[in-house]
Structure formats: structure tokens, C-alpha cells
Amino acid sequence: MFLENDRNLNQGRGWIEVICGSMFSGKTEELIRRLTRARIARQKVEIFKPAIDTRFDEQNVVSHNENVIQSSPVQHSSQILLYAHQVDVVGIDEAQFFDDQLVSVCNKLATSGIRVIVAGLDMDFSGKPFGPIPALMATAEYVTKVHAICMRCGNLAHYSHRKTDEKKLVMLGETDTYEPLCRSCYLKAQNETTKMQHTDKEAL
Ligand code: ZN
Predict the structure, then answer these.
(1) Does residue 181 surpass a pLDDT of 90?
(2) What is the structure's pLDDT at 35?
(3) Residue 135 lies in a domain
(4) CA pair distance 48, 46, nearest whole angstrom
């Protein structure tokens, strides 16, 4: 369980927290949990997400278990600097879809005294580090990696396996497109796909 720092407002320093993991790992739930607690502490909170993530709802950050919190969709990470004034806490969801400038944006916010909480996928469906998340993990004070449950064996999962052979990187998905898998089930699934592709070629 993540326990917040006491905010020492005289010190005038913020920090960055990263919440990352695969799909269905509860990243957004954890982001909403922390932001709700900041609101209970009467801190001013602003939430942003990339305008690309229109899943479920235009204006809100919605988690899979339907927790909702008001958010502002932005086209480019630099817009966050314009909108986030006079706030104590900035939350950013689906951060993997932002441009690389998000890293310096978050660091500027933290240096100006704001607590920045960023949630996002750490790896894409092919297992590669995703967008600005790896650099954010490196520069953040706190990194929390959350896990899903492997859909095939019940172990902890940290891969988001895409069940279709669509190659596009930005594909917003639900349970019918992605499944969280552990390392060994993910490798097995990849081998199955390679075998299937070979069989397809032989059939031609
Ligand atoms: Zn497994």
C-alpha cells in the first residue's frame, strides 16, 4: 500500500509518483484512490488524460470497475502546464499515449511544488517499454508497479497480450482484445501465434 508523504508546504517542493502495469492491473483505480484521498485532505486536484483516450467517456477518467473522476482531455502534454495552476496535485491517466515532452512537463510541475501522480501502461502489447513511461519511471521519486491476474494460470500477470494480430500500437481495448498474462503464458501465446503464422504460409 502506498502511503503519501506529509505535505510540507513551507518546503515548496513537489514530487512525481508513477503507477504502472499491464492492462487490467488496477492502475486507474489506484490513481483514483490517491486523488480521492488528496481531495479529502482538501487539496486542489486537477486530472488530465490524452485526448486520444475516448474509451467510455469524453470528460471523465473511468476505471474498469466504473470509478469516475472528472478529467480534462488535452492534445499535447505542454497544455497541462497551462491548465495546472494553483493546484496541489496533478493526476495524469493513460500517460503512455502522451508525447515524450510529458517527462519534462511532470518534472517542471514537481519542481514548482506540485505532487504529480502519473498512471500508464509500462509495456505495449509486444512487451516493449511504452512511450514516456520508462523515462518517467526513471525520474520519479516513487514507482508503484501493479499487477493483473494471468487469465490462463492465475499467477501475477505483467504482460498485456493482444488476442488479435492487429499491429497498430494505439488500440484501445477491452477484454475481447487483450488479456493479461504472466511471463511463461505470454511466451507460450507468442509461440502459438508464430506457429499459426507459419501454418498460414504453408497453406498458401
Ligand atoms: Zn500464466
Answers:
(1) yes
(2) 95
(3) yes
(4) 7
Alpha helices in 112-159 (DSSP H): 133-139
Between CA 87 and CA 83 the distance in angstroms is: 9
Choose between 10 and 34: higher pLDDT. 34
Please write the tens of the pLDDT for every residue from 87-131. 999 999 999 999 999 999 999 999 999 999 999 999 999 999 999
Its domain, for residue 131, covers: 7-147
180 occurs within a structural domain: no
Cα 180 to ligand 1 centroid, rounded to whole Å: 9
Number of domains the chain is built from: 1
User: Mean pLDDT over residues 65-81, rounded?
Assistant: 84
- pTM of the model as a whole: 0.86
Instruction: Note whether residue 194 is domain-resident.
Output: no
Give the Cα separation of 122 and 20 in Å (integer): 6
- H or E element in which residue 47 lies: strand 45-50
Query: What residues pack around ion ligand 1 (CB closer than 5 A)?
Result: 150, 152-153, 155, 182, 185
Query: What's the CATH number where 36 sits?
Result: 3.40.50.300
Catalytic residue among 94, 141, 174, 192: 94
Is 94 catalytic? The answer is yes
Evaluate whether residue 200 is within a structural domain: no
